Amino acid sequence: MDSFSAPAALPDPEALSAPSDISGDLYLDVTDFAHSTPHWFQQLAEAWTELGLLLFGALFVAGWWRARSGSGELMALALLAPLATAFGYVVSESLKSLVDEERPCRAVAAAAASLVPCPPTGDWSFPSNHAAIAGAGAVALALSWRGLGLLTLPMALLMALSRVFVGVHYPHDVTVGLLLGGAIAWVIVKAATRPVRVLVDSARKSRTGAVVWCVGPGPRPHASTRPEGVRHGAH
Fold first, then answer.
1. Which of 163, 171, 156 is nearest to 118 (CA)?
2. pLDDT tens per residue across span 69-96
3. Strand, coil or helix: what is 149?
4. Are 182 and 136 contacting, i.e. CB atoms less than 8 angstroms apart?
């Protein structure tokens, strides 16, 4: 006589999909909070996730324009800021393709719907490219423009938080993105400042107008106010 065993009880699908780690729990808390905020605040957060990148771009241009009349080192730092940020993005995107972490807006069934469309499968979650760009840009600009870190670092933090707020990243995605981008930018700027400064000083001696315009003429020499032929201390 055949014996039959009772089928095992199926687990709750939401219990399987709900994250059990700290980052997943924080994601649930943040997205729940996001849905409790006023509609205008949600729209502001949605806009900031993209407009913040444009603001960083505007600061790169302003830093380059400011450096045109500055020293060769100042121009080198201004030129390296967007390059270091781009390199931070490339490293982040390369790491993202290796990890293949699904977006929480698709993986966490118990979570509230994301405020923005969930990126398609294949556009992986870890690390956050937005956060990596923001972290790299914030550090690079802070190194190239004294005092600007008081603006760029909070900007980067808010941009990273906004990616969790709108529901498309876990907290650990944006944390690693910020740190990765910032560290890469710091290394690139510190390692390349001297050779780029040499190139800038050489370019400023060029006879090609377009080249000189791009790197700027540099600081103007201070004209002496002392009468010609009169030495210091002469009576």
1. 163
2. 888 899 999 999 999 999 999 999 999 8
3. helix
4. yes
